């Protein structure tokens, strides 16, 4: 707290002037001691002043014995995965009680480099929420990826002293870290002191995990099993419990924490990749809290994981608690066992609606023309198959991992989809190279058409899946015409689309319009046979992410992810 703010707070403490806001009859959740304190609560100059049986305020609210909870914190998320502009997502997530967002703009960076990162910073500057970023560490994710930009350590230096930059984002190139790669360590060394370094550890264990931790990695959000999470937590790595639109990891981890009775201080909540319609329907970090409660976790333990644990790990010493001197970010909750957020305050000011988030800068025109592809003909998806076993991408429901399944098909000069086996392709879209990688996938389920999307982690080339080459080509060409988006083609005709003209990642429409369109597209995808235990679009968008096990498709072809990094399958 600066001196001027402190002197204002001190005057209220001394009884010389009223607080800006006095909340009467509060049940204050104390995340330090695990207690519920019944008291009045004073706020001045955007900070908590004191709790007391007395006090007076310029404005007073009778809370009527409801609960005052610190503002919730999302430890790791990507605005780009929501498909709406950052301020639009904030307007939805904040009303669910999330007041602080730690975002990794590596999707924007993979398409548009530093201009994409600056766009995220500019869009969230002066927004009525706390938005911090971590600098993308692996752009591109691996040397095999064909993305739109290579972000260097030298370019990162200009961001390192920005107070909104907390450190280095998820370090996905685990092989480079373990082997002590010089280019990688130049990035790590920029953020080695007084910064956080986020990890990305889907498969490391044993001595390789210890090497990775020894390099200075502080967090990870890729744990699927509690055993994996526990191994990381024992090394001091903060485990970010992910509950996104495609990856649902919270159940296993919360059950493990409770059954093992370990200290939960090394655990936080995050959404990672979540569509805006899921935030509208089920909530944001408040949803993580409710899931934990439904599994039997004590309310204050779940609240700690959603607040103070994250604030402490990321060095946000002014956030995460209701106590004197802390920034007055808080929510009013009716019942700790149900955790319905009734009101939200940031810096002592109530957030009342979407109007609070209007006024962000316009997107630069240069970020709106990023899809560069030739006209795609059906023969570009030709896939010869001989008598040898073929690697098939097998989708795992509720996860973003896949299995690598070897299957023999009848020899043919062009594989035709049948049963559960569909054709999938990745088309390079940044430099108009014309590269197209083609493979076979199962576990998706589409019939009589194709779905294409320009959001395809992490390089964000176009990815398409379908049961015939003609519809796949039609879908990809429509993506090119729209300059990004989601397209569904059925029986030779474009059914509908969601344009994503900003970097091929984001819509320029508001949340409500995007949510309505995604709902139409999602219902159609399920009607066309996509399995209901997967998210049609987020699941598809992850099938090109080379740093997640086990099998992926990129413009260069099939990639297998092992313990030592990704390798092209010949």
Automatic annotation (TrEMBL):
Manganese listed as a keyword: yes
EC number: 3.5.4.2
Listed GO MF terms: adenine deaminase activity
Residues of the Adenine deaminase C-terminal domain: 407-561
CDD domains the UniProt entry points to: AdeC
Segments forming domain Amidohydrolase-related: 67-350
UniProt entry keywords in alphabetical sequence: Hydrolase, Manganese
UniProt superkingdom: Bacteria
NCBIfam families: ade
HAMAP family named among the record's database cross-references: Adenine_deamin
Name by which UniProt lists this protein: Adenine deaminase
Organism: Succinivibrio dextrinosolvens
Gene symbol of the encoding locus: ade
